């Protein structure tokens, strides 16, 4: 009898506590969606990982991972996604799944999600800030892309489908949009290899126009590292590699977080 009473009391407490934290959570999310500075979560290394820190008991919602397929992806985009994704995880003869040489990098639309506190963090935070390549809400209209990285070979490939809002010459992709995807892919690759970096130099040769709506591959490879400097090469080709669209080299310089804050 006593035991039953205790169990009921514990259940009631749990129910009240869940209800309370649900309601607090709802209020916090309402507050955050109004772009006010509350809670604390930071998604760093743009396309690499999301680290979410939140004071108990407020569990923030999961951000959308833009690197996952959506309805706007063409069959070619989907095929290449599956091609590289299958190399991320392999099945042994015994049916056991093991890690492959490749990794898909998740991608979010904010580098800083929610933040409070610290002067430095607040200085960086702009509630309305969005990652340049992920700021068009309409699926398929802007940059649709997914980045895979091969740790062993120190190479990186991005499957990129350019939407109609990226037009430059009639029916073709704007050179600035091409530079943007190159900077994002090589910058992500350099960050993965060397930690936080900034682009110091990007040299681009445009060889052949990229048709709007087509799918291309953006390959990035490490040339060398020298102290704080990471040198990468990049090629943008059609999906069977028979046509070179763009070639580039990039220099990325390692920075401390203080550099971004102007300290
Ligand atoms: C959280 C992250 C998420 C990262 C998420 C990743 C994905 C995002 C990708 C987007 C990346 C961007 O768009 S970044 C945004 C665009 N880039 C920027 O705004 C950068 C602006 N520039 C700067 O802030 C600065 O100039 C730096 C950081 C690049 C370098 O300044 P510094 O730190 O004072 O270093 P400094 O001594 O000048 O240079 C270091 C070495 O590099 C050489 N060096 C410097 N600049 C150049 C150059 N243009 N061309 C040749 N060499 C150069 C120097 O000679 C020196 O060589 P030695 O004497 O040692 O031999």
Question: Can you offer a commentary on this structure?
Answer:
The chain is of the alpha+beta class. The chain folds into two domains: 1-66 and 111-135, no CATH class; 68-105 and 137-263, Roll (Thiol Ester Dehydrase, Chain A). It contains five helices and nine strands; from the N terminus they run H-H-E-E-E-H-E-E-H-E-E-E-E-H. The strands form two sheets. It has a seven-stranded antiparallel sheet with strand order 3-4-5-7-8-9-6. A two-stranded antiparallel sheet has the order 1-2. The radius of gyration is 22 Å and the shape is globular. The N and C termini lie far apart (65 Å). 26% of the residues are buried. The model is unreliable at 5-59 (pLDDT under 50). The site of dodecyl-COA has 20 residues, from helix 4, strand 6 and strand 9. This is Acyl-coenzyme A thioesterase THEM4. One of its GO terms (molecular function) is hydrolase activity.
Name the ligand types.
dodecyl-COA
Helix content: 25-40%
**Weakly predicted, low-confidence segments:** 5-59
Please, how many domains?
Answer: 2
Q: Considering the protein shown, what is the CATH homologous superfamily of the largest domain?
A: Hotdog Thioesterase
On the 0-100 scale, what is the average pLDDT?
79
Strand order of the largest sheet: 3-4-5-7-8-9-6
Structural class from helices and strands?
A: alpha+beta
Number of helices: 5
Shape: globular
Give the percentage of residues in beta strands.
25-35%
How is the main sheet built?
7 strands, antiparallel
CATH class of the largest domain: Alpha Beta
Give the SSE order as H and E letters.
Answer: HHEEEHEEHEEEEH
CATH architecture of the largest domain: Roll
Determine Rg (CA atoms, Å).
22 Å
How many individual β-strands?
9
Per CATH, what is the topology of the largest domain? Thiol Ester Dehydrase, Chain A
CA-to-CA gap between the ends? 65 Å
